[in-house]
Specification:
- A hairpin with a 2-residue loop joins β3 and β4 (about 115-120).
- The longest helix has 14 residues, at about 190-205.
- This protein has helices at about 10-15, 70-75, 170-175, 190-205, 225-235, and strands at about 45-50, 85-90, 110, 115-120, 140-150, 180-190, 205-215, 235-240.
- The protein starts with 10 loop residues before the first helix and ends in a 6-residue tail after the last strand.
- Helices cover about 20% and strands about 20% of the residues.
- The strands form 2 sheets. The chain has a 6-stranded parallel beta sheet.
- It has a domain at about 35-90 and about 135-245: Rossmann fold (3-Layer(aba) Sandwich).
- The radius of gyration is 17 Å and the shape is globular.
- It has 5 helices and 8 strands; from the N terminus they run αβαββββαβαβαβ.
- It binds zinc ion.
């Protein structure tokens, strides 16, 4: 689904937060006594992806442990002056819903004009309780909510462009007008909406940092491994929660 590589970035390294082996941080946290804390400026923005009831336990498309991102994001958000939320927001007849395709089951795929589309259980239907943010998510710092996937015929994993890779959500314009430079990404699901949001932001020229412990993945056919590989190729930094505490 990705179509280009991105230039390498060293944002987290500059701030002293990725591991020194060039790999992904988060697993080997330094001891508490020497732990450097990520500096956050007013050019940074925290992008919290799809922290909605349907992606949490008991929801229509529950990501394993999805609700566990909530306390992590709430804690990280205390550090940020800029926060943007996304909300998956589908009409009931949306093309990505398996029940809208005769003979198809969730997690099968179909071919659309814009490429291969995974079919999902119906989820995040506009105005439904499943589409609401998790009730414990602290939304008070959010200055913008971007709704995506509201066109019947196009799904939207990325917070910046819908799945046709052309239709903008408007977030890119917001980030540029606000002169934000580094996008920190957290939320659900790591291997779909977090991944494509991070990659699109990187391709658009932003420094991008994914906060892995504030994400959870679905992991369809190795998609979490593919996500980590892609992040390395794109120069997207991955950090652990301890960077912010
Ligand atoms: Zn969706």
């Amino acid at each position: 689904m990705t179509n280009s590589r991105c230039k390498a970035t060293a944002v987290a390294k500059q701030r002293g937060k990725t591991d020194t082996k060039g790999g992904l941080s988060g697993a080997a946290a330094p001891g508490p006594s020497k732990r450097p804390v990520m500096k956050i400026s007013d050019r940074d923005v925290l992008l919290a992806i799809d922290v909605q009831n349907d992606f949490c336990s008991g929801g229509a498309l529950a990501v394993p442990g999805g609700e566990k991102v909530v306390p992590a994001i709430n804690r990280i958000a205390q550090r940020f002056g800029n926060m943007v939320l996304t909300q998956d927001w589908h009409p009931r007849d949306h093309v990505s819903f398996a029940p809208n395709h005769v003979g198809k089951q969730p997690f099968q795929t179909i071919e659309l004009d814009y490429g291969t589309q995974v079919l999902w259980p119906a989820h995040c239907v506009q105005g439904s309780s499943g589409a609401e943010f998790h009730r414990d998510l602290d939304v008070t710092r959010a200055s913008l909510v971007v709704r995506k996937g509201f066109r019947r015929g196009i799904d939207s994993y990325s917070a910046l462009f819908e799945n046709d890779k052309r239709t903008p959500t408007g977030l890119l314009g917001y980030l540029r007008e606000r002169e934000l430079k580094t996008v920190f990404v957290a939320g659900l699901a790591l291997d779909f909406c977090v991944r494509f949001s991070a990659e699109d932001a990187r391709k658009a020229g932003f420094e991008v940092v994914v906060i892995e412990e504030a994400c959870r993945g679905i992991d369809l056919d190795g998609s979490v491994t593919a996500t980590h590989r892609s992040f390395r190729q794109c120069g997207i930094s991955v950090v652990g929660l301890e960077a912010f505490l």
